[in-house]
Amino acid sequence: MGMMQGKVALVTGAGRGVGRGIALALAKAGAAVVVNDLGVSLTGDESAENESPAQQVVAEIVAMGGQAVANHDSVADWAGACAMVKAGVDNFGRIDAVVNNAGNLRDVLFHKMSPEDFDAVLAVHLKGSFNTSRAAAPFFKEQGSGAFVHMTSTSGLIGNLGQANYAAAKMGIVGLSKSIAIDMQRFSIRSNAVAPFAWTRMVSSIPNETPEQQKRVEGLKKLVAEKIAPFVVALCSDAGAKVTGQIFGVRNNEIYLFSQPRPIRTAHTAEGWTPETVAERVFDQFANDFYPLQKSGDVFTWDPV
Hints:
InterPro entries: KR_dom, NAD(P)-bd_dom_sf, Peroxisomal_Beta-Oxidation, Sc_DH/Rdtase_CS, SDR_fam. By secondary structure, this protein is of the alpha/beta class. It has ten helices and eight strands. The protein has helices at 17-28, 53-63, 78-92, 115-143, 154-157, 164-184, 211-220, 229-236, 275-286, 296-299; strands spanning 8-11, 32-36, 68-71, 97-100, 146-151, 189-197, 247-251, 254-257. Strands 3-2-1-4-5-6-7-8 form an eight-stranded mixed sheet, with helices on both faces. The radius of gyration is 21 Å and the shape is globular. The two termini are 30 Å apart.
């Protein structure tokens, strides 16, 4: 009996990379899986593959004795999100976990980023996470249980070059996850965010022209996509029933619990502030505690283990 025996999970963007690893691991743990994947390119264009990535993963699950069904709807579409949740209920009788993994990239420096670049990424990552979660919420509420796992990123938590759209979406997901956790705690429904470190096609577009960039890419290639899955399975299982509202990271064999914003310094004046007194007193007082403009690679500098 696996940790997910008798449960049903939806994994979005499950045709490749991290999502595929999670779908397979959930199936190995006993879950019936709705394998959602549009089967499109990294930027969202139609794929030229003959068999859909989702169907390929379903075939793998069935071959190992599991249960799965493919879904090709878009998480950015409300009706599509409802359809993929309904696929779980119609085929397997219930829905117990939603893993919001679907994503796209349109990396470009902020001063060159078009509104279309921004909207396209938020539509999939942030709106998509809302759509699938909201579609599953009534089923979770009725049965008095359920787990949401949303994929965030250190691009939002820390920062990265040329990813204003992606970073905004991934930080938005953190706020969405926390709000879901607060609103649905009374129904024994939990929600957590996970930042996955993995070499997938989502990060294969990173520039590798300079020696510094090439060194970073070689380090990223050591990050195995399948390493994310065990933690996600544990979060979705009954063993994770008391874990909610948190931000985690998984980097090969390392698991992180991230901090959440809280005040670290205060300044007070009995007379009230003016722009001049703020400039004279507050900026210098806080300066030692300002966060530097670091990127994700500046913080995670050691080799994956």
